[in-house]
Write a structure and sequence with these properties.
Elements lengths: L2 H6 L5 H30 L2 H29 L1 H24 L4 H11 L5 H13 L4 H30 L4 H18 L11 H4 L8 H30 L5 H22 L6 H14 L10 H12 L2 H15 L5 H30 L1 H4 L1 H16 L1 H4 L10 H12 L1
Helix pairs in contact: 2-3, 2-6, 2-7, 2-8, 3-4, 3-5, 3-15, 4-5, 4-8, 6-7, 6-15, 7-8, 7-11, 7-14, 10-11, 10-14, 10-15, 10-17, 11-13, 11-14, 12-14, 12-17
Length: about 400
């Protein structure tokens, strides 16, 4: 591991909460696909399986920011444990209802309850921010966490699908629930690195989403999530049309691997200048990287194109977290980070459904038009909201160097 990453873990407790966060994040990539695999095996109803997976994702998008707002107010331990127990109970109900063939409405109620699962990525990033706020190490920490996210998305679906198909249908979601329980309770047992809560009287009223800068970031990431959701569905259909459906998992793993590589390299850099410029460039590069997908004719070309497209993801996500630091009051940092995940989740649900409709109507090749259009929308939103990103929240100006650059730019 390069020296900046070794130095990152010199802080007491950093290895422990990072490892706990990794385990607790695995369900993010395992639960949805695990539910699809389980339901399709038990009932053969792919429509029901997809609807339940979308219910889990949308419920998490609705509940996630509210749970994180409570975390900012009362602390991680007091909020995460009861929320996780609720989600685990709902997951157990879903597995039992699927096995015993209970009515569909029971399945949907349980799937919605799973949405109470907390955003462990935001919790871990909040701990890094408490340790390294205002230092270059925070950039490295966000880079490392972005790589961890991609590792989860590479291996999570493979593990979940493999267990449910080789062992028994409920195995994938069951292991995802176990990872969630171990990760959350291990993380919340580590009190020394837990960020200090901010009671309501210190926070003021309202949501972190009142921040104009955060509104731009979240809206842009709805479009970005649409890219991700569409690419997943279209790639499976593209591989299936060519008689190699199993290869889709390898091709999509290369998409995530490209992001991993870029995230590791980006974390080694000490970049100067306004992060909003890097962010807009990242969004632009993600959009441009979708254009070659419209021209792919075979799986090897698609694999290369997706690996290249993945290179823009992690740097953009890392820069986004830095911008949240500037545009959200410190007392609402966890909620602000969770809103990004919410935007992505909503986008993924939109992208999956729109891409499925296009594939049914015009084939997989035409389906790649969905992420291409979504990328253009993301760039348009980014350009229109760029000025808002140049105005941090009161008292949040980033590093001293960044603040000075803003002042010079303003004077000029």
């Amino acid at each position: 591991m390069p020296s900046p990453y070794r130095a990152l873990f010199a802080a007491p407790g950093s290895k422990g909460f990072s490892a706990a966060g990794f385990l607790g994040r695995m369900p993010l990539s395992m639960m949805g696909i695990g539910v699809v695999t389980m339901i399709s095996q038990l009932t053969g109803r792919y429509g029901l399986a997809g609807a339940l997976s979308a219910t889990v994702a949308l419920a998490a998008a609705v509940a996630g920011p509210r749970i994180s707002r409570l975390v900012d107010q009362y602390g991680q331990r007091r909020v995460l444990r009861p929320a996780t127990l609720f989600a685990l109970t709902a997951a157990a109900g879903l597995l039992l209802a699927a096995r015993l063939r209970w009515p569909d409405w029971v399945l949907f109620v349980c799937a919605a309850g799973i949405g109470a699962v907390p955003s462990l990525g935001a919790m871990v990033r909040a701990r890094w921010a408490a340790l390294y706020r205002g230092t270059p190490q925070l950039h490295t920490a966000y880079s490392f966490e972005s790589v961890v996210d991609e590792v989860c998305f590479i291996f999570g679906p493979i593990i979940s699908i493999g267990l449910s198909t080789v062992w028994f249908p409920e195995a994938g979601p069951l292991l995802a629930a176990c990872f969630l329980a171990v990760g959350v309770f291990w993380l919340t047992a580590q009190r020394a690195t837990e960020p200090v809560p901010h009671p309501r009287e210190q926070r003021g009223g309202g949501s972190a989403l009142r921040s104009p800068g955060l509104q731009v970031l979240v809206t842009t990431f709805v479009a970005t999530g649409t890219i991700f959701g569409a690419v997943d569905v279209v790639t499976v259909a593209f591989a299936d049309e060519r008689g190699h459906k199993g290869a889709a998992s390898v091709v999509l793993a290369l998409y995530a691997a490209g992001s991993c590589v870029a995230g590791l390299v980006f974390g080694l850099l000490r970049l100067k200048g306004a992060p909003e410029k890097r962010w807009l460039l990242g969004v632009f590069m993600m959009a441009v990287s979708m254009i070659p997908l419209l021209l792919v004719g075979n799986l090897p070309f698609l694999a290369v194109a997706l690996f290249a497209a993945g290179l823009a993801i992690a740097p953009t996500m890392i820069t986004t977290m830095s911008l949240i630091e500037e545009h959200v009051p410190r007392a609402q940092l966890t909620e602000g980070m969770t809103w990004i995940s919410t935007g992505l989740a909503v986008g993924v649900a939109l992208g999956s459904s729109i891409a499925g409709w296009v594939i049914d109507a015009a084939g997989a090749q035409a389906g790649y038009g969905v992420p291409a259009v979504s990328g253009a929308v993301a760039v348009a939103v980014g350009f229109l909201g760029y000025r808002r990103l140049g105005r941090p929240a009161p008292g949040r100006g980033g590093t001293l160097e960044h603040h000075n650059e803003r002042e010079e730019r303003h004077v000029a």
